[in-house]
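To close the section, here is one more complete example, presented without commentary so you can practise reading it yourself. The ligand is iron/sulfur cluster.
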Amino acid sequence: MAHVPAVNLGMPKVPETLAPRRKSRKIKVGNVEVGGDAPVSVQSMTTTPTTDINATLQQIAELTASGCDIVRVAVPSRDDAEALPIIAKKSQIPVIADIHFQPAYVFKAIDAGCAAVRVNPGNIRKFDDKVGEIAKAAKDAGVSLRIGVNAGSLEPSLLQKYGKPTAEALVESAVWEASLFEEHDFHDFKISVKHNDPIVMVKAYRMLAERGDWPLHLGVTEAGPAFQGTIKSATAFGILLAEGIGDTIRVSLSAPPAEEVKVGLQILQSLNLRERRLEIVSCPSCGRAQVDVYTLAENVTEGLKHLTVPIRVAVMGCVVNGPGEAREADLGVASGNGKGQIFVKGEVIKTVPESEIVETLIQEANRIAAEMPTSATGTPEVIV
Ligand code: SF4
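Output:
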């Protein structure tokens, strides 16, 4: 019978990152901490009409299941504002009300029990005159804010001054609004300076990071359809997060919001800012491949997508790099001659026909997950 080695898959307690986190002040969005030493959180936004309370709560439940930490809902009308109390109460994760144009809805959102309110100083009428009142209401209710500056809705005076929404213009808007809140002794806010161009966006956040210790919400606004938006966001967030800048992120995609969360989590995991979970190391395939690597990798990914433990699975097309990569992974297959050599932690445990590779990898992964130590990772959990 094949020998099955004991497995220790615990991740290092402090995984290596590319730079220390920038020192930001810590705020709370409901029960989620943002900034300071809090893990970088992942946000998304519902796409349902907020007035459709059931559909919105259903989407929030899906986002929660996908790993979203904080959800934002749009509040374009009085009816939407009136839906907030139930949504805020029933959501499993903190709800941020997203307010444009109407200052009255800021107060309604605070009264509704939302965890936080996003305000856009560029399009809320006479916003600067209302800062004191907003700061007081938020402070009294223990609600935090986001000053959400956006290239598409910058104050007209700054557009006139800079000619277009440059990084400098976005930062000037944000720093000015932050100073107004701080004059009212209100400090529980984070800032975003979003632009659809990753270059401008990165410049703006770098500048902003130098100007104060505010927690920063990263976003490339209107990043586009899933493929383009994923690349743009991963590029821009990757640069900033690798420099230690960024306390919470939202990937904006023209795609279902749960996709945004998947991308956001994957970006954080790639930089060791979140515990890595399932990681498939698969080769791109080439003329030497002796199995259909794409299908194999896809089927293994699909079969293991519910694993919530850090596990690296190598799916390799031939014996050139196959055994080496398979040995480095927790679990792997090196294929050749219609067969797959199955490795667990560097040892070949069995050789199976090609038709049994996927099934065998899934079985072994589940076995390994069930044996994982609880110390570094919390209780191992396999959702099936
Ligand atoms: S592992 Fe083999 S099949 Fe895959 S890319 Fe490398 S050489 Fe090609």
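Once you have examined the tokens, check your reading against these statements. Residues 79 and 212 are 37 Å apart (CA to CA). The pocket of iron/sulfur cluster is lined by residues 283-286, 288-289, 316-318, 320-322 (CB under 6 Å).
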